[in-house]
Write a structure and sequence with these properties.
Layout: H1 9-30, E1 36-42, E2 46-53, E3 58-62, H2 68-75, E4 84-90, H3 94-101, E5 106-114, E6 117-125
Parallel strand pairs: 3-4, 4-5
Antiparallel strand pairs: 1-2, 2-3, 5-6
């Protein structure tokens, strides 16, 4: 019998994050907008993926986990006034996102896994 490889929690988290990014990208494409993806490493132990929608002038950041360094990077983001900032946050972290990103110009949108799909909640002001 061949042993089944065991995935680490980091690998599982990365796969979930990739699904969230793909679902968000698809949502923009359905509305006719192409987005630019950018992945930013955060202190060597986390990453932050962003989707920039130039026509809508909106940048969405996919939050993978409750990492203080990620919240600090988001709180320090500066963009031109006409650009909107949104953090796509695991539903369980919406309270933390409100606490960490209030007064930083962000909107928040919760996400969760629903079977094989990624579901998104409504947009809230941080």
């Amino acid at each position: 019998m061949t042993p089944t490889p065991v995935q680490t929690s980091d690998q599982v988290l990365e796969q979930v994050s990739e699904r969230v990014v793909a679902a968000a990208k698809r949502a923009w494409e359905v509305h006719g907008e192409r987005v630019a993806l950018r992945e930013t490493p955060v202190n060597g132990h986390a990453r932050l993926t962003s989707l920039a929608a130039p026509t809508s002038r909106r940048v969405e950041y996919v939050v993978e986990c409750d990492d203080p360094d990620v919240w600090d990077v988001l709180a320090a983001v500066e963009v031109a006034d006409e650009w909107q900032l949104c953090a796509l946050v695991p539903l369980a972290l919406m309270g933390t996102a409100h606490e960490r990103l209030c007064d930083h110009g962000f909107k928040l949108q919760g996400w969760w896994l629903q079977g094989d799909h990624v579901a998104f909640g409504g947009v809230e002001i941080a």
